[in-house]
Amino acid sequence: MEIGTRRMLGEILVERGVVSRAQLRLGLVHHHEARIPLGRALIREQVCTEADLLEALSAQLGVDSVDLEHEQVDPKLARLIPARIARQYRIVPLRLEQKEREILHVALPAPASIEALDAVRAVSGKPRVEPHLASDPALTRTLAALYGIRDPSEKFSTPHHPPEPTDEPPLLLYGWPPVTVVLLSRILGRHGYTTKVATPLEVLHTGPSDVVLAPMQAMEGLLMGEARIVGSLIVHGASEDEGYERAHQLGAKGFLVNPLDEEFLLRAIRRLRPSLSGGLRSGLGLAEEDQKGTQG
User: Are 277 and 270 in contact (CB under 8 A)?
Assistant: First the structure.
């Protein structure tokens, strides 16, 4: 159960002039294909900031927001919320307010759940708990400062500067819809990789240093019979064993169930292009651990 009535987040961002209709459509595609929240997709696309998102979520849910960077949090209040509750709900105490009844103000991520507030009310013994929305990166830093809690799931939440592009040839994208090409290029560009939309002839004439990313069906249509390419191939296909076997038959060195899953996409590429990843292993074939990971 969630607090507040729900207007469409995208509409709120458009109304506020934060994103355009075209940017919202691109974010929605990223949201659906990468299976991440819309707000996180728009931040990854660099069309809105954490502050923009927090203000829109506050308007959507009717819950005040708080900037933890400028909030003085009393470390003594950590005794009111045990670390296990803070970790489970990503919730931190802000301050105590004395009125007719004592009010404990807390910061937590959107959407603010009644379950989380009930848990805090039970463990703190405070009759009233007042929620305030905070951004994920700010909550991560505050939880670490108050409780020593580290949350590895936030690896993509904080802004970072992409590595400088190398002199290696661009990654070749073949057979993708135009919107997917844009999303793949942006994801890879953030990590220092350049991309190029390849023609059939360019794919067929790849060299040993080339890496091709393509949907399974597109490559099966291009490599009919026993044809193979010299370059390294990463294909996108279904998660069933049949799809994995088809990738083997194409001579693929990587297999992705969801090509827009940033973590597994980068893992597949870095095994073939280790220069931007601290010297990870290269040249690996389709490993069983990859199949398990991409099915998650």
Answer: yes
- Length of the chain, please? 296
Is the CB of residue 134 less than 8 Å from the CB of residue 146?
A: no
The most confident of 3-17, 147-161, 265-279, by mean pLDDT? 3-17
pLDDT tens per residue across span 111-147: 777 888 999 999 999 989 999 999 888 999 999 988 9
d(C-alpha 4, C-alpha 157), whole Å: 25
For residue range 86-103, list pLDDT tens digits in order.
999 999 999 998 877 889
d(CA 296, CA 74): 39
Which residue is associated with the tokens 């994920």?
136
Whole-number pLDDT of residue 136:
87
Question: How many whole angstroms from its chain centre is CA 200?
Answer: 31
How far is Cα 71 from Cα 6, in angstroms, rounded to an integer? Answer: 27
Query: How far is the CA of 287 from the CAs of 141, 210, 292, in angstroms?
Result: 36, 20, 9
- Measured between alpha carbons, how far is 4 from 76 in angstroms, rounded to an integer? 30
| Cβ neighbours for 265, distance < 8 A, ≥ 6 positions apart | 184, 187, 188, 256, 259
In whole angstroms, give the CA distance from residue 186 to residue 183: 5
pLDDT per residue as tens digits for the range 197-229? 999 889 989 999 999 999 998 998 888 766 789
* Residue 77: φ, ψ to 5°: -70, -15
Cα separation, 161 vs 174, in Å, equals: 27
Residues 6+ apart with CB under 8 A from 6: 60, 61
Per-residue b/e over 93-126, b at no fewer than 16 CB within 10 Å?
A: bbeeeeeeeeebbbbbbbbbbeebbebbeeebeb
Closest residue by Cα to residue 236 from 220, 219, 256? 256
- The pTM is what? 0.52
